[in-house]
Each structure stands twice: as structure tokens, then as C-alpha cells.
Amino acid sequence: MKSRKGLFSGWKEVYAFTFEQAVSLKSFKITTIGVALVLFLLVGSINVILAVKDKEKEPAKLTMESVVFYDETGILGNNTPVLTNDEGEEIKGIEYELADAKENEKADVLEKCAKKKNCVMVRIYEEEEYVIEMLVPKDCDVSKKSGKELLKSVENYFKINKIMSTGEDVDTLMKIMMPVNISRSIAGEEEDTLGEEIIKMLLPMVFSFFMYMMLLIYGQSISKSVISEKVSKLMETMLTSVKPYAIITGKVFGMCTVAIAQFVIWVAAVIGGFFAGDVVAKAVNPGHDNIVLEAINFVREDAGSAFSVSSIVIFVILACIGFVMYCVFAALVSSGVKRAEELNGPLAIYNIIVIIGFFMSYMLPLSVNTGKIEFINYIPLTAVFKLPVDVLLNNVNNITTTIGSAIIVVFTMVLIIVTGKIYKKKVF
Predict the structure, then answer these.
(1) Alpha-carbon distance 110 to 90, whole Å?
(2) How far is CA 362 from CA 244, 375, 378, 389, 395, in A?
């Protein structure tokens, strides 16, 4: 085998060999396809289950033909109640009657109600709290679900009358009932929209979590791959023709490509399962509204300057570069290990570093003023988690993006060189 003179000469061959070796494993194929199928079916099933649950929660058809109100509180007054549904539309097709509690006994009113077809009695009285009770005669053909639906409308009507009984005018009552919202903003700055607030809260958490899990899972694979040839003594032969830096670069890049490709397949399975499940859900329940889709559309329409095409491209590139950097670090901690059984200690160090980077990048911005934690985007271990999201949300300028990205790339190159030196010393 002819010796290569360049520092990184031959890394492409190592990359191709590592990638082909990893994807050809039966365990890799089974895991990738198996997990993708499980995710597809799981996400799709959740959509269908939610649609079925929504169908069960649909308002029941009111089967009672008449309702007699027995109000012992006097809050309903002398006016015959007018009930409405959740949409504020008047419920029609039911005869309402208001019995005077002062002149009639409860038993007499109930007996009178029992003589009517499908008539129920609604009693309202006061103990330590207001109680709305439905009394259904024995021969009345009214389902429990229908009764609960009616009671819900009665409750809403009673609440309105309870407030109106204070004697205040409508405008005053509206002011009393008006909700109070608190907000904080810096003078001179434009306040964030609701959509911007939602994505600024959720996106860093989601991205950091997925990056964190990928690094923990695939860091072990990188470490095992780096020491695999040491056990078989194959590395001694490879180092005679390829520099250790090229070997580390090729192996790490190869394993990273496999990891990213596997992750993309799983994400595609989740998205495919989600939309396939939504189609089935709509067939099961045409009135089903997908909460996730509604939330996504709302955030997208109200996201301000976030999610531009250029920011998405840079986000993907930075996420991949950051993933590679941590994978090189996984190779570094395992480069001094000669046997697989000695890998637990170095992997523990790697996991601790990943955890520190994850928590610093996510928790620190929540507890400190945003302007004071700009330095996180210049520290490689934390920038990997924070900088891509800041770019996607348009929270950083081009200078910060360029400097932060350059620091990550330079730090990765330094890690490769250091790893290569340690790697070669431990082989010979």
C-alpha cells in the first residue's frame, strides 16, 4: 500500500470504507427499518386515537322534550330560561318551564314533570356552594350523556344570571370579567408576537433535546468504531499508508453520515406517519381538527422574521458541523483506549461534557438576561446547541454567526489533530 504524504490524504477512502461497513451490517438495517416502522405506526395511531376520542366528545343530541326549572336561589328570576350550546347558538326544540319554588313543593313539580313525555327537572339550590341537580323520572327516555350536555348549558346560563344579579350594568360587569395579562419588554424594542414567543420557548428546547440524545446515542458508536481496528491490529497496517488524522477524519465523518442518514429516515417516518394518520383520522371523524397542524400554521403565520430559507440552510449546516465536533470529541476520549472493556471511563467523561454543554446552552438563557449570555455562541461546547437555533430564529447577526461557526470548525480541526496524535501513540 502506497504511503500518503498529506496530513489528511486518504480520508475519503477511510470514509467510504467506514460508511459502507456500517450500513452493510444486518443490525443497522433491522434497527433503522424497525424503528422507522414503529415511529410511523405509533405517530399515525396517535392521530387516529385522538380523532376517535374527539368523536366521543362531540356534543350529545338532547333527547329531552321539556325541562322544568326549580330554582330555590331566586337567581334565575321570573324569566323563562333560554339555553345555548358551546357555539352560543340557542338550543331549540325543547320546551322550558320555570316553576316558582316559593309556591310549589319539589315533589309536586317532579310529579308534574313525570306526566310529560321525556321531561326532566332541573333543581338549583344553595348549600356551601350552588348546586345544579337534574332529576329524571323513571320512565323518562333521556340518556346520561344527553343529561350532562344539558346541565353544561344550564351551568353557563346560571353563571351569567349570577353575575347579572349583582345589579351592575353590563359595561361594568364586562370590565370586571376582563382577563389581566402581564408582559415585559425593553423600551424602544418591538414586542414579540405570540407566535414568536412560542417558538422562542419551544424550539431551543426541542432542538437541544434531540441533539443531546443523538450525541449520547451515537457517541458510543463513534468510540467503538475508533477502537475496533486496534483490537484486530488492522490499524498498524493502515497507519503505514494513511496518516492518523486522515483515519480519524474518515471514520468520524463516515459514522456521522450514517447517524445523520438514520436520523433523517426516522424523522421522515414520523412526518409520514403523522400525515398518513391525519388522513385516516379525517376519514374516521370528518370534524376532527388536528391540534398540531393548527399550532404549526399559527406559529408559521405569526413567526415574524424567523424560518427564512437562508436561515434554515445555515441551521442545517451548523447542526451537522456541531454534531461532527462532538463526535470527534467522542473519538478523542476513546483514542487512548486499547481494549473495548476499558471504554466505560472515557465514555462517562464524554457524556458529562455533553450534559454540561446541553444544560448550559438551554438553562442559562432562561435565568439570565439574553444580552448577557452572548458568549455562549462563542464557546464550542455550548454553541453547538444554541447557535443553530439563534440563526433559525434570526436572534443573531451575521458577525456572530460567522465567528461562532469558525470557532466550531477550528476547534473540530484541533480535536482531530490531537486525537490523531494520541491514536498513533497508543497503536505503536
Answers:
(1) 25
(2) 35, 13, 15, 11, 15
Q: CA-CA distance, 322 to 329, in Å (whole number)?
A: 11
- Could you read off the pLDDT of 49-95 as tens digits, one per residue? 888 877 666 666 777 888 999 998 888 888 778 888 777 778 888 88
Report d(CA 329, CA 427) in Å as an integer: 19
Q: Which residues contact 37 (CB under 8 A, 6 or more apart)?
A: 269
Residue 58 CA: distances (Å) to CA of 85, 281, 285, 337: 12, 15, 10, 62
Q: Whole-angstrom Cα distance, residue 32 to residue 24? A: 12
pLDDT tens digit sequence for 367-414: 655 555 678 889 999 999 999 988 888 888 889 999 999 999 999 999
Could you give the 3-state DSSP secondary structure of residue 70?
strand
Strands 130-135 and 119-126: antiparallel
Q: How buried is 208 (Cβ within 10 angstroms: 0-12 exposed, 13-18 middle, 19+ buried)?
A: buried
Residue in the structure block whose three cell numbers are 331549540 = 92
Q: For residue 231, how many other CB atoms are within 10 A of its CB?
A: 11
Q: What is the DSSP string of 7-24?
A: SSTTHHHHHHHHHHHHHT
Residue pair 347/219 in contact by the 8 Å Cβ criterion = yes
- State the average pLDDT for the chain: 81
The residues, ordered by sequence, that sit 6+ positions from 60 with a Cβ below 8 Å of its Cβ are 143, 145, 146, 148, 149
Joined grid coordinates for residue 405: 461557526
Question: What is the radius of gyration, based on Cα positions, of the chain?
Answer: 33
**Strand ranges in 295-373 using DSSP code E only, listed in sequence order:** none
DSSP H or E run through 274: helix 244-284
Of 378, 330, 386, the closest CA to residue 353 belongs to: 330
Report d(CA 65, CA 340) in Å as an integer: 78
